[in-house]
Amino acid sequence: MKNQEIKYLKHAIELAKESVKKGGFPAGAVVIKGGKVVSEGISIGNILHDPTSHAETAAIREACKKLNTSNLEGCTLYESLQSCVMCFSVAYWAGISRIVYASKKTSEMISKFYYEGSTDNKKLNKENNREIELIYVPDLGKDSLDIVREWENSNDIKTED
Fold it and tell me: Which is catalytic among the residues 5, 40, 56, 79?
């Protein structure tokens, strides 16, 4: 199972690179069902003038359209970065069964407003009516964060070192 998770996380990370190339935020997401890519998403809400168009929500919207349903039960969402509360909630309402991510939300990312705050998705998950299986696979965390750093440097975003 871990090899599959690595494969799809690499795919999400490649999408994060694509997002940056298109002028977006360095995040990518993929929805998988039955071992097949259903949809992909990049984070270009700034370009679309849509604050809800994060990589995860874009991938979920596309998956729902392709599968002609609003119920993505049995699907796994692979993310280059741990989802924000909005994206986690969208995954919940869409019925996503599993979320697998390469990099955790950090206090540095929160202080730069890449996240809404320090709300813990695991805690939120336990308080919901249905729990999504949350899987952190740190093997590619550095790769994911490297894209964030490159994006910050190319956009002259101040970092705290």
Answer: 56
Sequence-separated contacts (24+) of 43-48 with Cβ below 8 Å: 43/16, 43/19, 44/19, 47/22, 47/23
Q: What is the pLDDT of residues 20-45, one digit of tens each?
A: 999 999 999 999 999 999 999 999 99
Confidence category of residue 2, pLDDT binned at 50, 70, 90: confident
User: What span, in angstroms and rounded, lies between the C-alpha atoms of 72 and 56?
Assistant: 13
Asked if 135 and 5 touch (Cβ cutoff 8 Å), the reply is yes
Contact between 108 and 160 under an 8 Å Cβ cutoff? The reply is yes
Strand partners, 135: 100
Angle, helices 85-94/55-67, rounded to nearest 10 degrees: 10
Cα separation of 105 and 87, whole Å?
13
Q: Active site includes 152?
A: no
Model-level pTM greater than 0.90?
yes
CB 100 within 8 A of CB 137: yes
